[in-house]
Amino acid sequence: MSQRKAIGIDLGTTFSAVAHIDQYGKPQIVPNSESERITPSVILFDGGNVSVGTVAKNSSVAEPERIVDFVKREMGKPRELFHREFEGKVYSAEELSALILKKLKADAEKYLKEPVTDAVITVPAYFNDAERTATITAGQLAGLNVLQIINEPTAAAVAYGLDKLDEDQTVFVFDLGGGTFDVTIMRIEGHKIEMLATNGDHRLGGKDWDDVIVNLVAEEFDREHGENPLLDLQSYQDLQSRALAAKIQLSSRPRTAIIHSYNGKSVKVELTREDFERRTRHLVEKCKTICEIVMQEAKLEWSELGKILMVGGMTRMPMVREMITQLSPMPVGDDVNPDEAVAIGAAVQAILVMLQEEQTSGERVLPEDTRQQFSSREGALMQVTNITSHTLGVVLWDEGQLQEYVFPMIGKMSAIPASAKNFFGTASANMPRAVVRIVEGESTLPAECTPLGLCDVKLPPFLPKGSPVELVYEYNANQVLEVAVHAAGNQTKVSIERNTGLAPAEIAAAAAGLAELNVS
Questions:
Q1: For a Cys staple, 126 with which of 200, 263, 319, 471, CB 3.0–4.6 Å?
Q2: Predicted confidence (pLDDT) per residue in 310-321, tens digit
């Protein structure tokens, strides 16, 4: 019997965090090698050396061309749409995220004094199939066995619900981080945590508030000196960090001043909290609209909620809390640490997944005391049920309308894991192959959905038009899709050719390339 050590990782846009379950069955944050409880998701390339975290963040102004940040917003993109090049080597979003994960893994091993083998990694609930697949790949490239990908709001609800499993309640999780926004409604009942509805915007986060301040200062600088300080990368990074500091100050103070120097000239901009709130009202309104949509999707009234959980650093802003207070009669509680809850929930989920693995395989991989602590909780394990955040469909040909349309196979808000089976007829006689186009999205128009990939199935000769083709969609616990096609006796379990940064065949080479880098 070989013991394995699992951690929970909140892989954030601006900051990441790691947690584990200690010998007493309690979740604990694992500090990094700089003794910080959260690690900036910033990478600095310096020859064959790579620094991740505060060292990299502090160098962002001095050496902006060597820095990578906000890589989470690029996850799932094909290499031609996003890549960064250093020392003649091109890196995809997965490889860059893997470098952050390598640092987190190494720091956890140093702190825990044992090898870390497994991890549950969190993603925004609104991440699509390609973004989730890319996150799993990043974990594998970092040398981790990715037990599961779990939604960030679900992880926060698990962290909150760990001691509340005997109090049935409906929990509204509002998760606004540095780069992504998610709203999820969870039901805690018995030993079950069930997701009822989710919505979000994975390109809305703290950076958008920062950018408002950046642009305000840049316009003032241009007005006074006739120059744009954003054209210089160093000046832009400097202004970004000053804007972030000003935003944080305005959460606790009524006013602040931003001083920015560029090309021997400087400008001082006074900003009050009132003015800042007025300039960013459109961002708060976006959040509010998504909150209202998710309540409609869950068919709930605000008065029916038992708890509102605020997760993500941006929820410390008074304007965000005020908006929630206006919507809901419930007091906004500080039941979880906004920076740490997601990692803690992921660590709990890691143990739950491993306990299930033990029950299935009969092989014991967890330390005895951890198993005892978890199994003795009133004799039942916590069960977590997620739902799909997007509809999964297939593109079909409408003979009557002479146009393509999307047929939904697995609808949004289906419980996961989910599967669906349907029969379709071939579009013409003697078709040599059936090409199945898999898409994700809520529209019936293929152009308005996200393409996930193609399945190309060879057909036997002389099939008449309308010959049945069976399509099976299996949506696993990671919200990653597997497709099987059965046609005229030919059965094909199709690996979807996802258009993400790395093809499956490239993963081994990428892992070898990353292993040559010295990550600290």
A1: 200
A2: 999 899 999 999
For domain 206-279, give its CATH number from 3.90.640.10, 2.160.20.60, 3.30.230.70, 3.40.1440.10: 3.90.640.10
Bridge-based pairing state of the strands 418-425 and 468-475: antiparallel
Closest CA to 422 of 493, 487, 489: 487
How far, in Å, CA of 423 to CA of 467, rounded? 9
Question: 216: number of CA atoms within 13 Å, CB side?
Answer: 23
Do 352 and 381 contact (CB within 8 A), yes or no?
yes
Look up residue 55 and give its two tokens: 């060292």
Question: What is the helix (H) or strand (E) element at residue 156, kind and residue range?
Answer: helix 152-161
3-state secondary structure of 194: strand
Per CATH, the number for 392-476+480-502 is 2.60.34.10
Radius of gyration of the chain (CA): 24
Cβ-based neighbours of 80, under 8 Å, separated by 6 or more = none
Rounded CA gap, 468 and 413, in Å?
29
Domain definitions of the chain by residue range: 6-166+336-385+507-519, 206-279, 392-476+480-502
Residue-wise pLDDT tens digits, 444-500: 999 999 888 777 777 888 888 888 888 898 888 888 888 888 876 666 666 666 666
DSSP β-bridge partners for residue 493: 484
Both tokens assigned to 518 = 């010295």
Residue where the block lists tokens 């979807």? 496
**What is this structure's pTM?**
0.90
